[in-house]
Amino acid sequence: MIYEYDLEHMKLRTGDLICTSDGGGPGLKGQFWRLLGKMIPGDVDHIVIYTGPEGRCVEAGAKGRVITFNISGDKWDYNAMYGERGIVDRLYGIVRPLQGKGLSPAAESQARETIANYCLEQATKGKPYNLNFLDSATDAAFYCSQLAYKAYLTVGINLNTDVGISDIPGTKNIIFPQEIWSGFQNERPL
């Protein structure tokens, strides 16, 4: 089933990607995440996959494994989600990799369901966080943008675009959040 959810005046659909920047408000937690974000090239530091229903999402992150969590309300409130996620981040925008692919409505719905099911399966299995960023081919563990990359590969879309990332020797296999943001249809909050 395909779900829709309004987040800061943007319409999310199952399979859409939420992009965030690390860091948030004042305090030690916010400073820690802001520092961590500085080590990732680009403005976008983290990718979350919207699955629905309601505000349900999947991510690989601070909890050390792939998890589901819920956005409550129509605002990205890292404080409200911190207990579930353990991350302090700010909403950067939404990426819609399926938009403009020329898929029929039925094919797009099938792709969205396949992407969501892949992500939910990884969370159900409690797959660990992948600290080996150079190994984006593995299905044994995931980092945030690698999870989105692997989910989209199941429907024939490659999120490893190299768009918006400086050429850093030895990093071709890393799936950077910024390249996903820069390589596809995206929207910023008002």
UniProtKB/TrEMBL annotation:
Top-level division of the source organism's lineage: Bacteria
Name this protein carries in UniProt: Permuted papain-like amidase enzyme, YaeF/YiiX, C92 family
SUPFAM superfamilies listed in its UniProt record: Cysteine proteinases (SSF54001)
InterPro entries for the chain: Papain-like_cys_pep_sf
